Description:
Mean pLDDT: 86
Distance between the termini: 36 Å
Order of helices and strands: HHHHHHHH
Number of strands: 0
Shape: extended
Number of helices: 8
Amino acid sequence: xxxxxxxxxxxxxxxxxxxxxxxxxxxxxxxxxxxxxxxxxxxxxxxxxxxxxxxxxxxxxxxxxxxxxxxxxxxxxxxxxxxxxxxxxxxxxxxxxxxxxxxxxxxxxxxxxxxxxxxxxxxxxxxxxxxxxxxxxxxxxxxxxxxxxxxxxxxxxxxxxxxxxxxxxxxxx
Length: 173
């Protein structure tokens, strides 16, 4: 059972190669063309990714996340949301590695079975790195006007944050 995925992947790749051979497709030339297109896409989105990584480092190194957590803590406690997971909520839309680091810190400090750890776990599993996804996917296809994408995605993230706290309280209290 452990090797089932490996065999399925091997079968899938073999099927693609067999199909290409039957159609007399130049497989290596197609591979090189795809790799060339991939490199061009990577180069075109590199400036936006560098800016995004800089913003994440700026947020964490400057102490803005800690100051924001301290400022919003009384309001969050009134609505039943643990302020300790706010750094995760701030970093989650920006950076997968930054939010993973915040998530690991939460689990190390409060434990995975605590209320805070469970809320952080649901948030980590249910939200998306919004700005990274928009940067990569829209940058790869050359979309300049993103219209309502960011607003809609951030609304989904905020809903995920709030509902994580609600459902953890509902199912584990």
